[in-house]
């Protein structure tokens, strides 16, 4: 079986699953050792500023490791709010983390102990990607458009866009000044302020 759910910690340690078991590599992937931890629930990972690694089982418990993935303990159960998928971004400097769970965007400010709904104003039920420029300004990429928050995810506003593409199925990124670039359907769209987008695709198309 192939390695799945690959995660690389800031230390360089690689965590992944294979045959429903969590594996760990501390030598850049030259060798992998089984942690002995059974996992068949599509885990996702994130790392807190304290270097604590969190592993969220999609339908199961939230676990943590304080020794770079060698040993794991339970932080929360599904009855306590566990479940879902961590957003693929580093935590904010204050430790705030995000996850999708049951078609909702949730945020935690206490390392995953408790979670609060973070999608006020956002009509999208799936958040594909979140990128932030500061600890209070984030952009969210969803199937129905790009959203922005100035309040650390407490409230969201949908940005205007003038693209003719109906489905947001590509990739996006932002600059430190708030410019937004969206790549979808072999087109590149650009907005200097995240409000109005212009098709800036070269005449000969994008060269992959």
Sheet-strand content, in percent, reads: 35-45%
Spans of 5+ residues with little confidence (pLDDT < 50)? Answer: 162-168
Strands of the largest sheet, in order across it?
Answer: 1-2-3-4
User: What portion of residues is helical?
Assistant: under 10%
Shape: globular
Spatial separation of the terminal alpha carbons: 30 Å
Structural class: mainly beta
Helix/strand order? EEEEEEEEEEEEEEEEEEEE
Largest β sheet strand count, sense and barrel closure? 4 strands, antiparallel
Number of strands: 20
Q: What's the mean pLDDT score?
A: 79
**How much is the radius of gyration in Å?**
19 Å
What count of helical segments does DSSP give?
A: 0
Describe the protein's architecture and organization.
With 208 residues, this protein is mainly beta. It has no helices and 20 strands. It has strands at 4-8, 14-18, 21-25, 33-38, 44-47, 53-56, 62-65, 73-76, 85-86, 97-101, 104-108, 116-117, 129-132, 138-142, 145-149, 157-158, 171-174, 180-184, 187-191, 198-199. The chain has a four-stranded antiparallel β-sheet, with no helix packed on it. The chain is globular. It starts with a strand and ends in a 9-residue tail after the last strand. Residues 162-168 have low confidence and may be disordered.
């Amino acid at each position: 079986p192939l390695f799945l759910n690959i995660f690389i910690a800031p230390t360089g340690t690689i965590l992944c699953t294979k045959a429903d078991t969590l594996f760990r590599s501390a030598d850049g992937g030259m060798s992998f050792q089984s942690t002995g931890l059974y996992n068949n629930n599509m885990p996702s990972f994130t790392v807190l500023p304290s270097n604590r690694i969190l592993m969220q089982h999609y339908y199961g418990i939230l676990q943590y490791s304080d020794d770079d993935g060698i040993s794991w303990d339970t932080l929360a159960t599904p009855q306590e709010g566990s479940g879902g998928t961590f957003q693929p971004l580093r935590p904010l400097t204050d430790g705030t983390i995000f996850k999708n769970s049951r078609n909702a965007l949730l945020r935690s400010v206490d390392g995953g102990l408790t979670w609060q709904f973070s999608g006020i104003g956002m009509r999208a039920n799936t958040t594909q990607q979140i990128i932030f420029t500061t600890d209070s300004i984030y952009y969210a990429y969803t199937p129905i458009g790009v959203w922005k928050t100035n309040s650390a995810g407490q409230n969201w506003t949908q940005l205007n866009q003038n693209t003719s593409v109906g489905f947001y199925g590509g990739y996006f990124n932002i600059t430190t000044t708030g410019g937004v670039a969206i790549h979808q359907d072999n087109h590149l769209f650009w907005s200097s302020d995240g409000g109005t987008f212009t098709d800036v695709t070269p005449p000969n198309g994008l060269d992959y």
